[in-house]
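User: These chains co-purify. Model them together.
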Amino acid sequence: DSGVTQTPKHLITATGQRVTLRCSPRSGDLSVYWYQQSLDQGLQFLIQYYNGEERAKGNILERFSAQQFPDLHSELNLSSLELGDSALYFCASSGSYRGQETQYFGPGTRLLVL
Amino acid sequence: AQSVTQLGSHVSVSEGALVLLRCNYSSSVPPYLFWYVQYPNQGLQLLLKYTSAATLVKGINGFEAEFKKSETSFHLTKPSAHMSDAAEYFCAVSGETSYDKVIFGPGTSLSVIP
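Assistant: Joint model of the two components:
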């Protein structure tokens, strides 16, 4: 168990809909990262938050948005969903442990858009 | 710009044999390099990372990788394969800070033959 939790585990929805994926980082970790894994695009970094502030942006579509709340959990919002958005969405958190910054991943949310 | 190539989308080794997974990178700045593992139906796990300290990096589960700037390579090795090593392995490169805007390779699927 990595200590990073993601809900829901599975999500089935229709094109045009909007969904919210939730991530809770490891206790004490300030950074949260979102990644997408699909058959077409492979693994892609989407966005990173640090202590509530956006720190880095990757290949995140304008239809997607994220935020990190004061309790450090994060939500990834996907809107106007398309078939191609079907993918596994991972969240990760990082923090310093014994002088090393280490990253831990959640189990992912599998999104299927029909 | 940064990119990662992984030679061989699928590698098979016998149990007890040497594991060698190849990774070459392209980066216009000094890179941070990573290896991640994804076990079947599970999330990602960070195996090891290179951050410009020692060129030989030791990771978890007996894996290690060597950074060779002249060859722009970061190959992953393990002296003796175990059945539990069967998984998908991803090499990744990042530019500015650790885990920031990570670019993943396409992955190599490792099979271990008893």
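The CA atoms of residues 32 and 51 of chain B lie 5 Å apart.
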